[in-house]
Amino acid sequence: MCNNPIVSIIDDDESVRVATSSLVRSLGWKARLYASAEQFMASGNLGDVTCIISDVRMPGISGIDMYRQLVGRGMLTPIIFISAFASENTRRQAFDAGAVCMLSKPVDVTDVTRCLESARVHASRASAAQPPAGAR
C-alpha cells in the first residue's frame, strides 16, 4: 500500500483541476496538476504516480490517447477518466484502454472516493507483481 499516494490530475479546465485537487487532497492523496496530456507526459513525474485522473477531451492529445501512449511505454498506472461528454462510445474506449473508472462531470465525491480506492488496490497489486530490483 502506498504511504503517500500521488494522483496526477490532467484537465484543460483550471476550475476542474483545482476542485478535483481539493477533493483528492481531502482524501489523503497528494495531487499534481497538469493543463494538458502533453504537459503531463513531459513532466518527468510519471514513475511515482499512484493514479491518474484525466479528462477525456482536451486540446492536443486526448486523455485516452495519452493513456494508450503510457501503456505502450509499459506504464500501467491506474487511470480514472472524467468527461462532460461521457457517451457510451467514450465509455467503451476508456475501458478498452484500461480505465479503472469512467466518471461524468461534475464528479460525485462518493464515486471519486470509490474509484481512488480501486486505483490504490490496483497499484498495490501491480507493485507486488514487480520483481525485486536486480532480479531477472
Summed up, the domain count is: 1
| CATH topology value | Rossmann fold
Name the beta content range: 15-25%
Sheet with the most strands, sense and barrel status: 5 strands, parallel
CATH architecture classification name: 3-Layer(aba) Sandwich
* Coarse shape: globular
| CATH H-tier superfamily | Response regulator
H-E order: EHEHEHEHEH
Query: Which class best fits the helix and strand makeup?
Result: alpha/beta
Strand order of the largest sheet: 2-1-3-4-5
Helix content: 40-55%
CATH class: Alpha Beta
Instruction: Please state the CA-atom Rg, rounded to the nearest Å.
Output: 14 Å
pLDDT under 50 segments (min length 5)? 132-136
Mean pLDDT figure: 90
Count of separate DSSP helical elements? 5
The total strand number stands at 5
> End-to-end span in angstroms?
24 Å
Keywords for this entry:
5 strands; Rossmann fold; 18% strand; 136 residues; five-stranded parallel sheet; alpha/beta
Question: In short, what is this structure?
Answer:
By secondary structure, the protein is α/β, with parallel strands linked by helices. The protein has one domain: Response regulator (Rossmann fold), CATH 3.40.50.2300. It contains 5 helices and 5 strands.
Task: Report on the architecture of this protein.
By secondary structure, the chain is α/β, with parallel strands linked by helices. Helices cover 43% and strands 18% of the residues. The chain contains five helices and five strands. It has helices at 14-26, 37-41, 63-72, 88-97, 109-129; strands spanning 6-10, 30-34, 51-55, 79-83, 101-104. A five-stranded parallel sheet has the order 2-1-3-4-5, with helices on both faces. The longest helix has 21 residues, at 109-129. The protein is globular. It starts with 5 loop residues before the first strand and ends in a 7-residue tail after the last helix. 32% of the residues are buried. The model is unreliable at 132-136 (pLDDT under 50).
